[in-house]
Amino acid sequence: MRHHILDCTDRAYQVRVAKESDVESILELLVNAAEWLATKETSQWDYYITDLEGNTKEVVDSIAKASTFLVEIDNEVVASVTLEKEPNDWDQEIWGADSKREDVMYLHRLVVHRNYTNKSEQTC
Predict the structure, then answer these.
(1) Among 14, 24, 38, 68, which is most buried by a count of CB atoms within 10 Å?
(2) What is the mean pLDDT of residues 25-47?
(3) Are the CB atoms for 90 and 82 separated by under 8 Å?
């Protein structure tokens, strides 16, 4: 498995494909984001708070397809993103006929732990 290291400021960010053992870390990121979003009076991702168990399968399935990637700092998972080759039902509803194109990917669940957002550090 190939790992990518981004050397930003004084910290190294490692990007890698998520493994089955990373499910809990990813769910923690999603719950963290959902709780923050709730403070902004939005219901986006509220299902990670109200029905985490019922919404875990899509995360597990994406990991099994090697579609989910993690960003780590000092071996701590700080972000995750999923890039799917096939549209899910929601993608098909949004994109309609365009969801049948083969030259696209679908970005899902881009999430950064709140402790790592709004940093004034130099970016890559």
Answers:
(1) 68
(2) 95
(3) no
Answer yes or no: are the C-beta atoms of 13 and 72 closer than 8 Å: yes
Rounded to two decimals, the pTM is 0.83
The C-alpha atoms of residue 48 and residue 27 are separated, in whole angstroms, by: 8
Burial class (CB in 10 A: 0-12, 13-18, 19+), 63: buried
**DSSP state letter for 66:** T
The backbone torsions φ and ψ at residue 51, rounded to the nearest 5 degrees and listed phi first, read: -150, 60
Q: What is the pLDDT of residue 13?
A: 84
Q: Residue 86: its pLDDT value, please?
A: 93
Helix-helix angle 23-39:57-64, to 10 degrees: 130
DSSP codes of every residue in 29-65: HHHHHHHHHHHTT--TTTHHHH-TGGGSHHHHHHHHT
